[in-house]
Design goal:
There is one protein chain. The chain is mainly alpha-helical. It has 5 helices and no strands. Helix 2 packs across helix 3 and helix 2 crosses helix 4.
Length: 71
């Protein structure tokens, strides 16, 4: 498990942040995401990586996004 964890942290952190952003945003909106949502999900994931990958940061980024505010 340690090797897998190390591999994911070193090689797949961006992919993990994008996937988590996608799933959490879909949950927050209460609907599946569409192709049109992709640009904003990518922006949320990028900002998440810049802010340090914290879960509280992700929630804040989702709530302040246009996707969430236009429900």
């Amino acid at each position: 498990m340690d090797g897998l964890k190390r591999f994911l942290l070193e090689n797949r952190q961006d992919q993990f942040a994008l996937s988590l952003s996608h799933k959490m945003t879909s949950y927050a909106l209460g609907r599946p995401l569409t192709f049109g949502d992709r640009a904003q999900i990518n922006q949320i994931a990028s900002e998440l990586r810049r802010t340090g990958d914290g879960l509280a940061d992700l929630v804040f980024l989702i709530v302040k996004s246009n996707l969430f505010r236009q429900i």
